[in-house]
Design a protein that fits this description.
heterodimer, A: mainly beta, six-stranded mixed sheet, five-stranded antiparallel sheet, about 0% helix, B: about 110 residues, four-stranded antiparallel sheet
């Protein structure tokens, strides 16, 4: 099955700086890559997703990039704000087996 | 809009007790899922239901059963709880059947003593 590894496990950034989280996946058939944000005491919430036919996608201050050859994808948050502090999860799935495999999560702390 | 509603929010069980976690969604979604979240392990799929009337095993189904009661409701049952089932449980739903654009509930924190 799919194995998704996520780094780093914790990330502390100064407000206004950028944050980058990286994930690798093992199944070359994977073609859907979402990112979820989980605030304390809440369920995960989808913030952005990308398909394998697209190399990059942006939505305001967040962007995701995908390198199919290297089998890795990254989340970029620019101009970080205190409300960006949360746990972020990457995930991957394929149309062969549409079960979503999650990374272990990254705890992001934005320092004021 | 309520979205995905889970009950209860917290539960403490003794080893061997049984319980059912309830989940309901009001978005007319076809697919529903149960995940468990453990520290350092992300979310792992327990069971899913691609459409009303169907259920399938996920990554960690042992010790659990599910029922897709109707299109709105998907319950998770622990027949004989074990300490290894101490976790946070999340229900999710999606419009399609391919685990895309999941909407999660707020979770049930379960402790088995």
């Amino acid at each position: 099955g799919e194995n998704v590894e996520q780094h780093p496990s914790t990330l502390s950034v100064q407000e206004g700086d950028s944050a980058v989280i990286k994930c690798t996946y093992s199944d070359s058939a994977s073609n859907y890559f979402p990112w979820y944000k989980q605030e304390l005491g809440k369920g995960p919430q989808l913030i952005i997703d990308i398909r394998s036919n697209v190399g990059e996608k942006k939505d305001q201050r967040i962007a995701v990039t995908l390198n199919k050859t290297a089998k890795h994808f990254s989340l970029h948050i620019t101009e970080t704000q205190p409300e960006d502090s949360a746990v972020y999860f990457c995930a991957a799935s394929s149309s062969n087996d549409y079960k979503l495999s999650f990374g272990a999560g990254t705890t992001v702390t934005v320092r004021a | 809009n309520a979205g995905v509603t889970q009950t209860p929010k917290f539960q403490v069980l003794k080893t061997g007790q049984s319980m059912t976690l309830q989940c309901a969604q009001d978005m007319n979604h076809n697919s529903m899922y149960w995940y468990r979240q453990d520290p350092g392990m992300g979310l792992r799929l327990i069971y899913y239901s691609a459409s009303e009337g169907t259920t399938d095993k996920g990554e960690v189904p042992n010790g659990y059963n599910v029922s897709r009661l109707n299109k709105r409701e998907f319950s998770l049952r622990l027949e004989s709880a074990a300490p290894s089932q101490t976790s946070v449980y999340f229900c999710a739903s999606s419009a399609g059947g391919w685990s895309e654009k999941l909407f999660f509930g707020s979770g049930t924190q379960l402790s088995v003593l």
